[in-house]
Design a protein that fits this description.
This protein is mainly α and 185 residues long. The chain is built from 7 helices and 4 strands. β3 (111-117) and β4 (120-127) form a beta hairpin.
Length: 185
């Protein structure tokens, strides 16, 4: 059996055991929580004994951990620290703004980017399209949850623990507005 040297195909040579360890970590990621050895082995395409050896090594360096009571495996403390540091180093607005510009260019529509703030969605980027809009929203504006499409998206996808207070304030404002209109009529 003849094998080709990866360098002949222009591929860079790597370390197969690192790539195999990553398959174990990806199996843990896709599981959405702590997993048994057999599930990890199946998801990573390995025999359980081989997956176990990788889990032991990954556990020694803190990338995985095993619950002593259940025997289930999950990400370890070092993995959590690395994930948090990776998030700290990521400029989400810059990453998303590039995609927003591409979307604007493909559709011709204006595309805005908003993040959740303490009082609701805040517009952090606006890519103006070629089609006119009947409204103008400035970067930095906080949009309402109930009467903006951006607010509706946040309401649909964020947990109530984040949106509840802002939504309650908007509902109380609507109730006051409705009562004032009835009294004036």
């Amino acid at each position: 059996m003849t094998t080709t040297d990866p360098r002949e195909n222009g591929e860079r040579q790597g370390i197969q055991s690192v790539e195999m360890a990553m398959r174990v970590l990806l199996a843990l990621e896709s599981g959405g929580g702590a997993l048994s050895l057999s599930v990890i082995a199946q998801a990573s395409g390995m025999q359980p004994s081989k997956a176990h050896r990788y889990l032991v090594s990954l556990g020694r360096i803190g990338l995985t951990s095993q619950d002593p009571a259940s025997g289930l495996y999950d990400f370890g403390a070092a993995m959590r620290r690395m994930g948090a540091e990776s998030l700290r180093r990521t400029n989400e607005v810059a990453v998303a703004s590039g995609h927003a510009t591409q979307l604007r260019d493909r559709t011709g529509h204006s595309v805005n980017l908003a993040v959740w703030g303490d009082r609701g969605p805040i517009v952090v980027s606006w890519a103006y399209g070629t089609r006119p809009l009947p409204l103008t929203v400035r970067v930095g504006a906080t949009l309402p949850l109930l009467t903006s499409s951006v607010g509706q998206v946040f309401l649909a996808h964020l947990p109530e623990s984040l949106t509840g207070e802002v939504l309650g304030g908007e509902l109380r404002g609507k109730e006051t507005e409705w009562t004032s209109e009835r009294l004036a009529a």
